[in-house]
Amino acid sequence: MARKPRSPPLSVRLPPDERAELESRADRAGLSVSGYFRTVAFDTPRRSRRPSVNEQELARLLGAVGRIGSNVNQLARTANSGSWPDSRALSDACADIRWMRDTLILALGMTPPGPATPSGP
Predict the structure, then answer these.
(1) Is the pTM of this model over 0.90?
(2) Torsion angle, alpha carbons of 86, 89, 94, 100, to 10
(3) Is the torsion defined by CA of 28, 34, 37, 38 positive or negative?
(4) Regions in the chain scoring below 70 on pLDDT
(5) Where are the domains of the chain?
(6) Cα–Cα nearest to 75, from 64, 66, 63, 87
């Protein structure tokens, strides 16, 4: 779906104390300064907002998933060429997966478990 082109910016000069107040109000509302300005000036409902901490963590998690996919691809390519990947690559992949698990648990408002202990025979 094509996005609408952005309209040209509008500049407003404010004394430092008024600018600080505007930024503070926008922050308390969870909006960007321009989003807050539009909401107040046009008495419209919020349309844009800053991502919550959970949304930011989930975005980081999505990036980690991409890196994991890349790591798994490299490990598979190495294994298919007759070599076995070094233990550091496997350890890094496991650490990334643990981080993803803990981040998801935190984003859901739960407490992640402690470090995994290896299970033996």
Answers:
(1) no
(2) -170
(3) negative
(4) 1-2, 46-54, 85-86, 115-121
(5) 16-50, 53-107
(6) 87
